[in-house]
Design brief:
By secondary structure, this protein is an alpha/beta fold. Helix content is about 55%, strand content about 10%. The strands form 2 sheets. A 5-stranded mixed β-sheet has the order 3-2-1-4-5. A two-stranded antiparallel sheet has the order 6-7. Strand 6 and strand 7 form a beta hairpin. The termini are far apart.
Length: about 350
Amino acid sequence: MPESITAGIDWGGSLHQVAIVDGRGRQLASFQVAHDVAGLAELGERLATYGADLPVAIERAEGLLVEHLQALGLQVYPVSPRIAARIRERYRVAPIKDDAFDAFTLADALRHEQPRWRPLAEPSPLLAELRALTRDRERIVAEHVRVQNQLHAILESYHPAAARLFSRLDRKVALSFARDYPTPARAAQVGERRMARFLARNGYTGRVAPAVLAERLHANLLAAAPGTVAGKSFAARHHADLLEQLTRTREAYDERIARLLAEHPDGELFRSFPGVGPVLAAILLAEIGEDRARFPEAAMLLAEAGLAPVTRQSGKTRRVRFRRAASHRLRQAFTWWALGQPDGEPLGAARL
C-alpha cells in the first residue's frame, strides 16, 4: 500500500469513528468500532492492512485508546480540538457535527500536515506511572481542599473555636480536637492543663503554648442552638474522618511519587532545579516528558507552558497578549515553581 495513507479517529466514550485516506485525499474506508475488547481488536486488524506504521490523527494525547494505538506500533498524532475545529472549516462553512466527517478531516489534514506535526512519543513504563500518579494526585488535592473548606464552614456555623484554634484544619491535632470536643459545651471544659495533656497525647509540635491555645479557644467559644449543634457536630465528625483519610492518601501518593522519581533516569536532573521538591519535580518530568527532541528550543517549551506571550500584528497595530492555548498542567507547575513554595511543593490542602 502507498506510504502516504493516513487515518483519522473521532473518538467517543462507547464508539470510535475511523476514516482512512490515501495520498490523493480519497477516502478508502469509513467505519465504526466499539470501545471494548472486540472493537479495539477489530480496529487493530483493520488498521494493520494499511501498514504497520500507519499515521493516525486523533483529538487527544492520552487515554486507553491512544495507548492501544501506540502498543500496535502506530504513529499517533494528537490534534488540539481548536485546530481540529479550524480544519473542519476548510471543508464546510456551516458548523455541522458529523462523526464520519470529523474523522475524515483529521485523516486528510494529517495527509497535508504530517511533515510539520510531531508524533506522540511513547513514554517509558516509569514515566507513564509517574504521569498517572501526579495527575491523580492533583484531583486528590482538589478534593482535599474541598472537604477542608466544607469542614471549616461546618465548624464556623456552630463551633468556631475549633476552626480557629490551630493554623491548619487538616493537621492531625486539629482534626483530633474536632473529634474529641465536637461541641462548644465539651470544649468549654478545656483549660490550660487539659489542653497541655491533649497536645502531648496528639504529638503537637507547634510553638504556641497551651495557655495561649486555651485562651484562644475560650475567646472564640460561640455556640449555636442545641438542635443545630447536634446536627452540625455529626457532620463535623464525619468530615474530619474524611479529611484525615484524604490526607493519608495524599501522603501515600507523595511517597510513591518520590520513590519513582528517584528511580527515573531523569529524576536527578529535575530534582536539581532550585526550589523544586520531589512532587513538583515529578510533575515537571511527567508533563515535559523524556523526548528531548520535543522541545528543540527553549522558546518552544515556554510556548507549551503558556509562558511566552502571543503577538498579533496587522498593519500598524501590534498587540501582545496572554497565551491561552497551552498545557495547563505545565503552566500550573511553572507557576508553583515561580511562587517559590518554601518546601518546593505545589499548593495543596495546606493553602486555601
